[in-house]
Write a structure and sequence with these properties.
Elements: H1 6-27, E1 44-46, E2 51-52, H2 59-74, E3 78-79, E4 87-103, E5 109-124, E6 129-143, H3 148-175
Length: 179
């Protein structure tokens, strides 16, 4: 055997370097506990139906249901009625629109972009705002179809996706540091 580390020595050295690197990285990073940015007395949340200031019927029910589902699934706060809640999530759907973004050679829209703008506030029992974002905006493209029923299905799918994204964003921002 010549004077080198050899295979076993190299493996040991490599493993030691990896462990040291992982330890150094671990010192600068930690996983936050869910809701550690919320006051410790907050245990329950109410999510009443959002106000819909758009002409798109049913958005308020869909988005409110998605928000409730997201919070209930995480289990980090108990979902309760407004009168029993430590905090209430209130919001307004400010804008919803669909815009054609691509066209056929016959100048017919073949793809649309659906966009939604929502204002959300988390308020305590005294009405103090704990967190807010006055302009959450999400967009989703969907295909138009000569069959109006298929086109409406595609639009409905885009709206469901938007509601899921808004609810994910609101939930995660409340529990991951209010960014």
């Amino acid at each position: 055997m010549s004077g080198g580390l050899g295979i076993r020595g190299f493996r040991f050295f490599f493993a030691a370097v990896l462990a040291l690197a992982a330890g150094l990285v671990g010192c600068a990073y930690h996983l936050a506990r869910p809701g550690e940015n919320l006051p410790p007395n907050i245990k329950t949340i109410a999510i009443p139906v959002l106000r819909n200031d758009t002409s798109e019927a049913g958005l308020e029910a869909l988005l409110s249901d998605q928000l409730r589902r997201r919070f209930a699934e995480s289990g980090w706060l108990k979902l309760v009625d407004v009168e029993d809640a430590d905090v209430v999530l209130v919001g307004v759907i400010k804008k919803f629109k669909t815009t054609p973004i691509s066209f056929s050679t016959g100048d017919f829209a073949v793809e649309y972009r659906a966009s939604i703008s929502v204002s959300i506030r988390l308020v305590d029992r005294r009405g103090n705002t704990i967190w807010q974002d006055p302009d959450i905006v999400k967009m989703r493209e969907y295909r138009a179809d000569p069959n109006i029923f298929s086109s409406e299905q595609n639009k409905s799918g885009a709206i469901r996706w938007l509601a899921q994204e808004v609810s994910r964003d609101v939930h995660d921002r409340i529990f991951d540091g209010f960014y």
